[in-house]
């Protein structure tokens, strides 16, 4: 097995993808809008992937946050709110906001599980900061670490209740970045005391099954390399200071915050300490190059992957999605009442 998550080019496996994936044996896959037509198509695709690998617990992930980050969209699937909706409710009724976030996440999980998706790139634990890039903005759960952690915990619990593994992101915190890492490399010059604010939610939820790194330079920790490529940040900050010992994946390798070829980037993040490299766009030349560059998945990373995928068990007694959405909407409605 190779320590990489690959994207797919379309709504079904091509013959070339099928042959390559069977040979390369990636640790998992990520789906985007180009892979999401309707429920029957998605279920057939994810079943095909599981059959190809012979693993019922195959990592099949998606970015289904809600708001502007949603790969499964209306009219085929319901719209979900961005994190800021729960932040606003927390101002008025913290316990109601926590209950709403949990119900919302469980509804997302039921939707994903129905089509065979097993992992969601949620929750964001990035603490929102004034003057930062809007790339986080309304996606975040707030500007206060305790609130972010409380709503993040509820989100992880809701996903797990619905049978889906959550990912805490973007470690060790993307909230101070003043530019969008999709397009350029953010550099954070905050001092160590200020950075403690960013670490706090991740420390609180350090037992999360999966985490994702940030393509951000933090000059106090490593002025030369972004977190995804920094053994110092991954080893000393994420693993030791935060205390996170779950499965750690990079953010998308194609983001322009990183330099070098895509295979070089993949090799770099794994060498730095990421368990898995995330390659989203399904370009065959890049994927072949990555498979050639990467070592086999280490025993430690395989154990983390297996532990993460076993961390949730989808129960048979699930509430209807409509009931969960109604609960969430009634609670969110308290803000306007």
Account of the 3D structure:
With 337 residues, this protein is α/β, with parallel strands linked by helices. The protein has 11 helices and 12 strands. The protein has helices spanning 15-24, 39-53, 84-92, 94-114, 145-161, 192-204, 231-241, 262-272, 284-293, 299-309, 321-332, and strands at residues 2-7, 26-31, 59-62, 64-66, 69-70, 119-120, 165-171, 187-188, 210-213, 217-218, 247-252, 276-279. An 8-stranded parallel beta barrel has the order 1-2-3-6-7-9-11-12, surrounded by 4 helices. The chain has a two-stranded antiparallel sheet with strand order 4-5. β6 (119-120), α5 (145-161) and β7 (165-171) form a beta-alpha-beta unit. It is globular, with a radius of gyration of 19 Å. The N and C termini lie far apart (53 Å). The model has no long low-confidence stretch (mean pLDDT 95).
Task: Give a quick rundown of the structure.
The chain contains 11 helices and 12 strands. It is of the alpha/beta class and 337 residues long.
